[in-house]
Amino acid sequence: MDLYSAQNAHRTAGKAAPVVDDALLERYTKISSGTLTSQLFKRGLRQQVLVGIRPLNRVVKPFAGRAFTMRFIPAREDIDTGATVTMRPDPVNLQWVGVEELSAGDVLVIDSRGDIRGASMGDILISRMQRRGARAVITDGAFRDGAEISRMEIPAWCAAVTATSRLSYHHVADLQVPIGCAEVAVYPGDVVHGDENNITIVPSYLAEEIIAACEAQESLEVLWSNFGGHF
Annotation-wise, does 123 bind a ligand? Predict the structure, then answer.
């Protein structure tokens, strides 16, 4: 698939962005964000790191998954009311709908517009995603229930923690559309890579090319290290 087709597949009926399989994702978990960003840079992609967000987890584990995107807009008082709060999946709550549409191997990436005043979500929804096999959850906003989330296995990255409800500041406007998270463009199906240092986004159409180049680079670096920096 060419660049234009990959970027616009979400707009074209009957077509989809290339699906990155689990075997390829597993290879991504073995490389560093430094290697990954170097290879992206060589291909002209200079802004793929989500700067300003950090993991809540006490133990930070590497992961790689397919981006499942969620887009927020500012809340409006006559729409974002207590009536839209549900403790289980309900069509009136688009956030719950998104959580139930997640597939194993997905990473939920939330465009919170960088607004940390209201929580993007809390431990109940994140627990549900963990049970559904999600690889991670990421927002450029805030989470609530930070202490509870910190003890979970699922990687959770955010810019802040707040007890303030999402409904105070955010409305879930759309799912599985291109978004911006921490000023980085994220398309549905992109590879989301996380390690102890960073979250990095890899366009899905480049996934195979990039991982092969990363593996070759790290193999060369090991050889270089074994020879004390001299060949």
Answer: yes
